[in-house]
Design goal:
With 470 residues, this protein is α/β, with parallel strands linked by helices. Helix content is 31%, strand content 26%.
């Protein structure tokens, strides 16, 4: 992967058509308009890739499932500007790449707004189209847009799409924008029949929406009628060329002798939980494990009565186990096998939902029973946000004192969160103990983004190789 090559540095100039779709705030219509654009451009036969800024699982998963496009995260908290650019180049679409921003355009960590969608736009030099829910506005819309454009000298904002307005209001709004020198690229009227429901962590998953194809087709038709698709595509072409410092094109980790000797003596099979209950995992985590020589095999804790054969590692990712506690509990044979395998020492990562699954119970309903205690629902987000966790002892993923940037996002809490890592919040410096860790286990609420510290991934793979040999 782009992050850990040790090959000869080459400079490759690459042209990537791209647009970053951001908004004035959360819930202003970014996701709806991004889906409408993906559908409309895809129908035109373009090869598209989509990206999401920030630590979001659901929107990328939605795009992969519904549009069958390459989808990745771009997160300035986890990655340096150079790494972010390399990641974007590696996973770009050959015709167009669309990046959806998170929250409001400038919203991030602290007063400076670090790790915002603006930081992503600046890092990959992308033109920005701002989404504004302008229902009930006229001149106020221009004031808001001008404020966003002028707030940073290099705002990258080149245009606006209005959301939730009527066809009759659009000529007035687009005319007002001309007075401040910002181009309008159309609007999307509010159509409740095409809306996608959400829950506490974002959109509900694509598998849960019976009429998803009808909704997407409806959004596409609205975009084709009301949005200047030709103009947006021409805008994407104005993005400057990007310079890649890593010759990853046509390359892989297997070309690196040091890593071959270190991580490729055998090919460990990693069993990764994947179903409606366990669906939150970064695509980049899978890629780094594959680049380090692993074979990924998926299984469903909801449906499969046993783990895949001949595995040497286990990855229980996050998701919504709290929505399926009875089904998970009824699968007693798998719960028993997982407890036995983890107790024997198979290298295991269990994060957030996967961590909850390893507990005695979720709200009193029996689970795997490896970690003592119950997981209970609370009425607010617990320890929400970006954090950095530092190991307080040697463990499966790291040596004592080593750290990695991660994030937490969960309403449920545990009676036994663990105390083998020290977490420090990026926003305010608050510190607290978290996670269970041993020579063969990492289990905790924090979600890990392995490219943020590839040594964590290497350590997991090395331990999986040892298990494979033994």
């Amino acid at each position: 992967m782009w992050l850990w090559f040790k090959c000869v540095v080459l400079f490759v100039v690459i042209n990537v058509n791209r647009l970053l779709i951001s908004g004035t705030s959360s819930n202003c219509g970014k996701t709806t308009i991004t889906m409408a654009l993906l559908a409309a451009f895809q129908k035109r036969g373009l090869d598209i890739a989509s990206f999401k800024s920030g630590p979001d699982y659901i929107d990328p998963m939605f795009h992969r499932k519904v549009f069958n496009v390459k989808t990745h995260n771009l997160d300035p908290y986890f990655c340096s500007e150079e790494m972010l650019c390399e990641q974007f180049i590696r996973n770009r679409g050959s015709d167009l790449s669309i990046i959806e921003g998170a929250m409001g355009f400038y919203d991030g960590i602290g007063v400076e707004g670090d790790a915002s969608a603006w930081h992503v736009a600046k890092s990959i030099k992308s033109p920005v189209v701002l989404i504004l829910d302008a229902k009930g506005m006229s001149n106020s819309a221009a004031a808001i847009i001008k404020g966003f454009k002028d707030f940073k000298e290099d705002s990258m904002i080149e245009g606006v799409i209005f959301n939730g307005i009527s066809e009759g209001l659009y000529p007035l709004l687009s005319g007002i924008l001309e007075t401040i020198g910002v181009k309008s690229y159309g609007f999307l009227p509010r159509k409740e029949e095409y809306s996608v429901e959400s829950r506490n962590l974002g959109l509900i998953t694509a598998d849960e929406i019976e009429d998803i194809r009808e909704k997407i087709n409806g959004l596409r038709e609205l975009a084709e009628k009301h949005i200047d698709l030709d103009g947006l595509y021409e805008l994407s072409k104005t993005a400057p060329v990007l310079e890649s410092k890593s010759d990853f094109i046509g390359s892989s980790l297997k070309q690196n002798d040091d890593l071959d000797n270190e991580c490729h003596e055998s090919k460990p099979r990693i069993a990764v939980a994947k179903d409606n209950a366990f669906c939150f995992i970064y695509e980049e985590n899978i890629e780094i494990l594959e680049d380090l020589g692993c074979e990924i095999v998926y299984f469903s804790p909801l449906k499969d009565e046993k783990l895949p054969d001949n595995i040497s590692g286990l990855y229980l990712c996050g998701g919504y186990p709290e929505l399926y506690p009875e089904e998970l509990s009824r699968n007693k044979s798998l719960c028993k096998e997982i407890k036995e395998m983890v107790t024997k020492g198979i290298p295991t990562i269990a994060e957030c939902g996967g961590f909850m699954y390893l507990h005695d119970s979720i709200e009193g309903i029996p689970m795997v029973g490896l970690i003592q205690g119950d997981c209970i629902k609370t009425d607010k987000l617990q320890r929400f946000g970006y954090i950095e966790i530092k190991a307080l002892k040697d463990n499966l993923l790291s040596k004592e004192g080593e750290s990695i940037r991660v994030h937490e996002f969960h309403y449920y809490d545990s009676e036994n969160c663990g105390e083998d890592f020290m977490a420090k919040k990026a926003s305010n410096g608050l510190e607290y103990l978290c996670c269970h860790a041993s020579d063969s286990l990492y289990a905790g609420f924090p979600h890990i983004y392995l490219p943020a510290n590839p040594d964590f991934a290497k350590s997991f793979v090395k331990n999986a190789e040892k298990w494979n040999v033994e």
